Amino acid sequence: MNQPALQTRLFIGNEFVEALDGSTFDVFNPYDNSLLAKVSEAKQADVDRAVAAARKAFPAWAAMSPSDRGLLIGRLADAIEKDRDNLALIETLDTGHPIRDTRNLDVMRTTATFRYFAGMADKNEGVVIPVDAGFLNYVVRAPVGVVGQVVPWNFPLMFTSWKLGPALAAGNTVVMKQAELTPLSTLRVAELARDVGFPAGVINVVPGYGHIAGQYLAEHKDVDKLSFTGSTATGRRIVQASAGNLKRIQLELGGKGANIVFEDANLDAAVNGSAFAIFHNQGQACIAGSRLMLHEKIADQFLDKFLALARSIRLGNPLDPATEMGPLTSRMHQERVLSYCQVATEQGGEILLGGRVPAAPELQRGCFVEPTVVRARTPTDRVCQEEVFGPFVVVSTFKDDAEVLAMANNTIYGLGSGLWTNNLQRAHLLARHMEAGMVWINCYKRFHPGSPFGGLKDSGYGREMGHFAMHEYTEPKSVWVNVDAKIPVFYPR
Ligand code: NAD
Fold first, then answer.
1. Out of 41, 91, 219, 286, which one is annotated catalytic?
2. What is the DSSP letter of 214?
3. 20 to 30 A from 105, CA-CA: which of 158, 160, 202, 381?
């Protein structure tokens, strides 16, 4: 395997630059924990530089014809598609995602998202409000300004497009901070953006630590909005940090997805879909179906098939196209996920499968965890309530619809959830009552650049994707025109 050329410095004003104090941090390949790159570490002064570049670029970018902005975003999508093998390799080395996924899903979804928002740039339409006679009142959707974006490590490439796409299409300029574990694919996207002609300062990338660069970006007085994807705990810190200038906040936070299988479901489809729901990307997905709820009539039959499938998942070198599950993205996270096996057993849960590092000698240096299936004692156990964010699914059984609905909603989270049934009325009724931003019926973890993505409760607020995201990145501005209004004279003299 050829090591790809990596950009490892901050990207500010269309230039790759060292951090002002020369700091760097190490980025590791989670397959063998070898050093992948030393990346420049942004501190407060570097964030200031990036925000200043974004502020300077804002007026011209906002004033550019929307079609021209769309054209540039479209060119970036084309460049990403052309760079597919290279970007997939970078993402696999940096995150541990199997190459079959980064190549066929992550890069292609990234391209599709940029293309969608390229087309959206000139469809950001306003409205005319029928107000009092003689007045014209129109509302335009104006860009918010300089946007800070803070992104986690689980899908760094894809999230770059989710965040940059609508922000840029709407006419904002951006300072993005990737997670310290996985900054490399975003830096490559920034390089491609420069190459296709984005003006200096429109996109800036400041890799660095959350509590330093991320926190400072959230506090920054000259940042107008902050869009955040990450944990609920960090989301709360960001809301507090934003208070100084009351910047707009959008939060995509954690989840504990309920995935319900009814007695009338197509079992084979449900088994396969439920395995995808939890094991894809090593379970490191906010929308993972991490609580599997089985109707008691089919629970044993379902579990036999599900465990057999989970046992057969091929763990290995993520660069091998046959690998279906790679390592988790960091050693620390591997240890955290494994620690939940102890939490489960301490509370009377039973480990039905996995819960260990795989035995194969070639996997010992990496951050691997076997597909893990745990039977919970009660739905209030910690493993049923806390986000594990790994290949770790907790199984419960239920008797009827009312019981499972209460169980599904018994969580602080409200992001994604799924149900498998052939009963139409039940499906729609449950979808109506499930406390979640997204509900999948006879499928799981589907998304599209046009369909709103986001959550309720402690999963955050605001939506990515589609018109919804364009609204997140714009402010309505109401303009009143006196055409021929008869305005009463207030101060007759
Ligand atoms: P995290 O909150 O630790 O970090 C996310 C990002 O925030 C990183 O870039 C990090 O450097 C930064 N950060 C950390 N502390 C900060 C601070 N004080 N101020 C500003 N930024 C700070 O989360 P993580 O462990 O990287 O990611 C996993 C979490 O993300 C999970 O909870 C997962 O559910 C969630 N997630 C949510 C979605 C969604 O769309 N709802 C998608 C993916 C992941």
1. 286
2. I
3. 202
> Could you give the C-alpha distances from 135 to 410, 478, 479, in angstroms and in order?
51, 12, 10
Task: Output the residue whose Cα is nearest ligand 1's atom 14.
Answer: 210
Amino acid 337 reads V
- The SS3 of residue 73 is helix
Query: Which pLDDT does position 38 carry in this prediction?
Result: 98
CA of 149 relative to ligand 1 center, distance in Å: 11
Chain position carrying tokens 């992001």: 415
Q: Within 10 Å of residue 476's Cβ, how many Cβ atoms?
A: 11
What average pLDDT is seen over the chain? 97
- Joined together, the tokens standing for residue 10 give 């901050």
% helix, strand, coil for the chain, step of 5: 40, 20, 35
Q: How confident is the model at residue 3 (pLDDT cuts 50, 70, 90)?
A: confident
| Interval 5-62: pLDDT, tens | 999 999 999 999 999 999 999 999 999 999 999 999 999 999 999 999 999 999 999 9
User: How far is the C-alpha of 24 from the C-alpha of 445, rounded, in Å?
Assistant: 36
Strands 173-177 and 248-252: unpaired
Strand-by-strand arrangement of the 173-177 sheet: 15-17, 10-12, 203-205, 173-177, 146-150, 225-229, 248-252, 460-461
Backbone angles phi and psi of 487, in degrees to 5: -90, 125
From ligand 1's centre to the CA of 142, what distance in Å?
Answer: 28
Residue 156 and residue 187 in contact, taking contact as beta carbons nearer than 8 Å: no
The yes-or-no answer on residue 384 being catalytic is no
Residue nearest ligand 1's atom 15 by CA: 210
Ligand 1 centre from 234 Cα, in Å? 6
> What domains lie within the chain, and their CATH numbers?
10-253+459-478 (3.40.605.10), 258-441 (3.40.309.10)
* Contact in structure between 449 and 77 (CB atoms under 8 Å): no
Ligand 1 closest atom vs CA 218: 20
Measured between alpha carbons, how far is 238 from 268 in angstroms, rounded to an integer? 43
252 is catalytic: yes
CB of 212 sitting under 6 A from ligand 1: no
What is the distance in A from the centroid of ligand 1 to the CA of 363?
Answer: 27
* Cβ–Cβ under 8 Å, residues 307 and 352: yes
pLDDT digits (tens, 9 = 90+) for 74-117: 999 999 999 999 999 999 999 999 999 999 999 999 999 999 99
CA of 209 to the centre of ligand 1 (A): 11
Mutate which of 153, 232, 286, 332 to test ligand 1's pocket (most atoms within 8 Å of Cβ)?
286
Atom of ligand 1 nearest to the CA of 387: 32
In terms of Cα–Cα distance, which of 125, 113, 84 is closest to 101? 84
